[in-house]
Amino acid sequence: MKNIKTRIYNGETLIGCWLNLGSALTAEIVGMSGFDWVLIDIEHGLGSEREALQQLQALEHTPAASIVRVESYQRQRFHRILDFGAEGIMCPRIHTPEEARQAAKAMRYPPEGIRGVARMVRATNFGSDFSEYYANQEKNLVCIVQIETEEILDSLDSVAAIDGIDVLFVGPMDLSVALGVYGQPDHPRFIDAIKATANAAIKGGKTAGVLLQKAEEFKKYYEFGFRFIACGSDSSFVQDGACQTAKRLNELKNSCKIKKKKS
Length: 263
Description:
The chain is of the alpha/beta class. The protein has one domain (4-237): Phosphoenolpyruvate-binding domains (TIM Barrel). The chain has helices spanning 4-9, 24-31, 49-59, 75-84, 97-106, 130-135, 137-140, 156-160, 172-178, 188-203, 218-224, 234-262; strands spanning 14-19, 37-41, 65-69, 88-91, 142-147, 167-170, 207-212, 228-233. Strands 1-2-3-4-5-6-7-8 form an eight-stranded parallel beta barrel, surrounded by seven helices. Helix 11 links the parallel strand 7 and strand 8 (228-233). Helix 2 (24-31) packs parallel to helix 3 and helix 4 packs parallel to helix 5. It starts with a helix and ends with a helix.
């Protein structure tokens, strides 16, 4: 474990990004690039649980902590990924405090939670470290719930007060669509919602997180109180790098053609 939860509660600002290609190789490259955490996305990403396991293995020797976004708050979506060795789970589209509470319970073994118990899994070094893992589960494992539905905005304080929830994370695309202001990041309804999320997290002793559309938004969200901040993905990094290199090469190619014609 890479102490990501300790760093969250120490008040550090932690930067991350998405992994949505389902590739262990891009996971390894991104994990070594300077991010504090990376998120393996099996809600919208190209990979399944099998690819998530491979990505977790690739990230093991990098400095980046590994978070996995699952498809729902249901228990079975959680315990398998945790058994693989993920350091945290992000749960999308929370509608009610009860759903958030179920997500928190799915992170923990009984009696505090409802996670299934298995000793011979990767997270416990296949049984050799089970006692240590069991004793430190609450200290090490991060539970992130996404604030991206209109319904949950009326219950932000209740969600932030739930024992076991560590980060309230705004999903800006889904939230803006839910509020009827898609593509309008400065719309008052959206700004009010993200400010309310950050304020509730701070009030509850938790952390607020967000996925930026571009890095230049960092200061804006930091000043709102967000400290668990992501931007970009392995797919966007590949696309941006490829487009920039191709553009530059085409510019150089065309300049050489012009010079040849003049000569």
